[in-house]
Write the structure tokens for this entry.
Amino acid sequence: MRFLNACSQIETTTSGPRRVQDRTTENRAPHPLDAPFHNEADTDWSLPHNVRWIRDKVDTLRRGEVSFVPLQIGGETLAGNSEASASDPSRPGHVAYRHALAGPEQVERALQVAVAARDGWKATGFEGRAAILAKAAATLAASRGDAIAAMVLDAGKSVIEADTELSEAVDFADYYARSFLREGTFDGVTCEPLGTVLITPPWNFPHAIPCGGILAALAAGNTVILKPAPETVLTAWVMVNSLWEAGVPHELLQFLPCPDNEIGRSLVTDPRIGAVVLTGAYETARLFLSWKPELRLYAETSGKNALVITAAADPDLAVKDLVKSAFGHSGQKCSAASLAIVEAEVYDDPGFRRRLRDAAASLKTGPSWEYDSIVTPVIREPGEALHRALTTLDPGEEWLLEPRMIDGNPCLWSPGIKLGVAPESWFCRTECFGPVLGLVRANDLDHAIRIQNDSDCGLTGGIHSLDPAEIDAWRERVEVGNAYINRPITGAIVQRQPFGGWKRSCFGPGAKAGGPNYAAQFATWQNDGLPRLQAPPSPGVASLLESFAAILSPAETEDLRAAAGSDAWWMAREFGIGHDPSALACESNLFRYRPVGRCLIRAGEALSEAEIARIVIAARAAGSDFELSLPPGREFAVPGIAVWHERVENLVRRLPDGGYGLLRAPFPGPEITSAAIGAGIRLVTHSPVFSGKIELPAHFREQAVAETLHRHGSVLPRPQELR
């Protein structure tokens, strides 16, 4: 039968090459919104015409004259109050271009325009906005060559790194276009946009990261102001032009480079800004919140990421993936491997050290304009932390591979690898953001996991091991937002590995970029009838419902039963199970929800008894270990739950040492807000709603676990398949 089937396809089977991608002629159309999401393909560099295409784009920009990038406010391009010069990290002293800087008058005008445009964009509706985002995916794809060239110029990126970033931006457009069209999104709820969202992106991913924030905010009905990173204004300009070309009105998306001084601060803290999206250092997020503690801040912040290598690893594969993770984009990825925690048997092996040193030393270090460069310049001359990491050894450390400045360019450094890095050392605790890797010796896997988890940050992490028991133990215990097994720990892809961290690597609700809950956080949600998607509540929830029926009215009790049914439905279909929507045969990409830790519910005087009961029911449905904090004199008994009667000042005093992961506190006030920020506790303040989709996420940390399932191209059977 197989022979006959093969013969029947003779006339329709092509005999030519399968690799037919052609960037010079392609015309990508918007994908239908009723079609499933799929990821955009990176450029196939094995095809000579694609190589010629990008070389023409990059060389043209390199030889071009110095250009000027303006502001864009309300559809007008303006010169601003002043201007600044941008540098090319590959060519010290060379002015890459000049760009405008907004003054107070332009900031005020942009805010007025953004506020005035809100109602019209909201009226466009979710489907209308989704159609524009789908078109944006096509215009972003069409700008690939220009965007890559811009990133080579001002971000110092290699062509290959810039190409994958452009694909990510396209994916964000297609993915967020579908965010509000999924089943159950509006079951018993409606939403209002936050108003105007300010995007303050980083320079290391200057295209995809701001693009993702912009598109998610737009999908939810907000207007947007982009304050691009000062190092990469041109790249951001290329990106926003693609969005305007797709039909995003200029009034809805404004381009506002401005100084990082009191002008920038006034923009961040203005009451007309509904939310700020930040990707940057932990210290920057704390600075923003010190200016305005009640600021709605969604921030992906610092990482000090480690790859564990056990004695059961394939050492050659581990070396390959470690080098890629540590030195891609010169280590300037928040997800980069700054540490390798190596089991003693491997750490002490001279052969492993030799292979690691040779692999890193073989990487071509050079300007981003040279197409074979792998380690390209850092964005600026190393600051204090990176300079110390590149030039100084602490007691007990030695160089396996000593970094060198190349060609007199203070931004261009070859890879460095340190041996003997102690778990408590300065390097092990400091984010350096450059091409330097530290090796830590671990006694065994348990010791390695404890070292990896003993970090203030929790962004990415990985393990290399071929032992299923070791993998299972690590997967269960690792405290990072993005976990990787037998593969590099960088290169997260939209939907496959939604990106975002734990601990000090995250501020705000914690929804991952490129994941199912990200766009929803750019709106406030209110009840709109009762949820219709229902499942039977757990016995623990059912018992609480019976207790609350004695203190609530019949109508309130029915509302609470509907809310409990919604919780049960969403736990069964979303929050209580793992998901792998990409369903690749060669790689598992598990998206799952992990408990956030102990929860404290603060019920102030403004909350009704029905609202307190709703929050308690959600906490029980999520499986949270929770306590209740009430003002003195207020009573609300929850069977089996500790209740604190305390003034605000007493609560504030005990929060830092309370061991809480979540503070669920509608209307918290400035004292409680500041205390939660200082203690590093997730603070969730929205009014309770009946929908489990909206109420339950507060109790979970999202985690993406990617695992390679093949060896040298052959897919391996899973352990359960061998039983």
Summary: The CA atoms of residues 331 and 434 lie 4 Å apart. The two ends are 31 Å apart (CA to CA).
